[in-house]
Model the fold of this input.
Amino acid sequence: MTSEDAFTVTPWEVKGEVDYDKLIQKFGTSPITDDIVERLKKHVKEIHPFLRRRIFFSHRDMDWILNKYESGEKFFLYTGRGPSGHTHLGHLVPWIFTQYLQKEFDAELYFQMTDDEKFLHNTELTLDQTLAYTYENALDVIACGFDPKKTFIFSDIEYSKTLYKIAVKISKHITFSTAKAVFGFENNTNIGMIFFPSFQAAPCFLPSVLKGTNIPCLIPAAIDQDNYWRGIAREVAPKLGFYKPAQIHSKFIPGLGKGGKMSASEPETAIFTVDTPAVAHKKIMSAFTGGRATVKEQKEQGGTPEICPVYHYYNLLLKTDKEIEEVCSGCKSGSLLCGEDKLRLSEVIGKFLTEHQRKREDAKKIIEKFMLRD
Amino acid sequence: MTSEDAFTVTPWEVKGEVDYDKLIQKFGTSPITDDIVERLKKHVKEIHPFLRRRIFFSHRDMDWILNKYESGEKFFLYTGRGPSGHTHLGHLVPWIFTQYLQKEFDAELYFQMTDDEKFLHNTELTLDQTLAYTYENALDVIACGFDPKKTFIFSDIEYSKTLYKIAVKISKHITFSTAKAVFGFENNTNIGMIFFPSFQAAPCFLPSVLKGTNIPCLIPAAIDQDNYWRGIAREVAPKLGFYKPAQIHSKFIPGLGKGGKMSASEPETAIFTVDTPAVAHKKIMSAFTGGRATVKEQKEQGGTPEICPVYHYYNLLLKTDKEIEEVCSGCKSGSLLCGEDKLRLSEVIGKFLTEHQRKREDAKKIIEKFMLRD
Done:
């Protein structure tokens, strides 16, 4: 974070109000344009709301992936999760979108649980704890509706025989200087964390290794993970004879705290998939909003949906753009008060949670169909 | 290597004429004393020639290991090999001694093949090559006569599921600064090499992890490997709730080149276990010796066995001290000429190789009994 930046985005920290246009410039990615959306339309039944709403806003090599696809080379999807705690609604964004891509493109998904990284990064966490969260989080992944025949979820720890073999080949091409420049490692960083980028890059090449043929890879993930692919996987790919992975990046869903803050240490700032609708209701009713200080001011001046978590959760959960527009214009005009708005969101989220938790419970019976183990 | 040192000893380089007393001081180990040898006599049928001849010359915590043993806590043995090429006679020194310890103390042996390290360290080597050498070198280990019921040979790559889980726990306690100070890593060192010390330390705790109880560990190894145990395993052990591994260190067997040089890039400077007796004969007859420039000088002034590889190979291969003394005094007095001496060594080595190669061939049939795999 340089002094002129008002925000930080790294794989371990997202801080401040993120300027996504600046991020595209800074990371050197490309914006999702209408042209790309038009091109996608040729292959999908409908454009996903997350694309229309530019929650997925940036990419690398989407054109290339579509060229490959159109010339008959199918791609696989790769995304993942750092299992340091329970899944919250923000985590679901890339997974929901990935499930859409799997369905529309009939693509295999390799889903990595970085339980090693979370253990290595967090002083407080034991390996048993991150392994337990791998299981808990996997239930949420499965609840998103992935195809058990085409989805392979793996824990770094439990699948390390296969991954380590690929990771050592990657690591041979990455010096400490490079890792330091990409991730900001310091002299007091532990050597497990320093090696870890090799593990996170490994799944980019995993299906190619398993099947003995070069397969294009598309990574849907929040933009904070870009470093791994830009700095490591895409650098090393040609040296190992693999394609560079393409990427499509999502924004972050703000938390419920002041200024959209979401903090693992403050569970009231996030809605977890294991929260009961009643708990979620309480969190929503206490949330920070983009509304005015008083009802009078709100009615006169209207609110600011752009900075309002309630609005962002609608963006995530409401299917039609018409519904969003209604809420948005109601808020801006002052006709919709924050109280009503939160009540409505609480109802939407309550329904979502009830449904998700049912699927999550079912996932317990079929989880082994998804898990890839050595 | 500081400017005043005339030699370097690191896990990847042994250079110059090694002053073993200085090394004990520098590394902070303890010399093998007559007291220790006397104490060992209580437990073994006979003192191994390598101990009598102080080829094993240094240790850490041998007293402690014997205290444990005498109080009824059995220890396990751990040693290993970096499979970057074929085994030469120098490599056999710790293995022969380890086999003796296994037999005398009825101890389990965990034998690590660091095929990952050799791949990561050598630009030229592919992973397939180091894996192939793991197999070749394992045959030599088995030919040393280890008990198949109590010996577990494993490749880092093939046993990485178990090892990685231990290694990440170790690595969490080792900063880059520490690894740099211990191994001299630099900014251009690859991140696989930086992580690797965690893998080499892991077997110190492996049986304790597998059996769920703390078991003392004794490592017989050449002294160049000391860094791993001093700087990593012994530092981390108490943090993970394990005993610090004890060690017993051997000297290096000089090569056949000028000044006792042995170089992987010059195969004529070492005798490999796969060399035919004829090839070994040729190498021995061309070897550098501690003899004088001319027969006349040799007869008048005698030779210098201490700097002579022929003498060191006798130390390794002749069973009785009487035989060694005969050769030694013959050389010093000038009555034994280098030519005869070499012919005799060639005969001894030829017999050794024939016998070893027979056992090595037999090992191919039983290797799977020894291999530990995930």
Strands of chain A lie at 7-10, 13-16, 30-31, 56-60, 76-81, 109-113, 151-155, 217-222, 246-250.
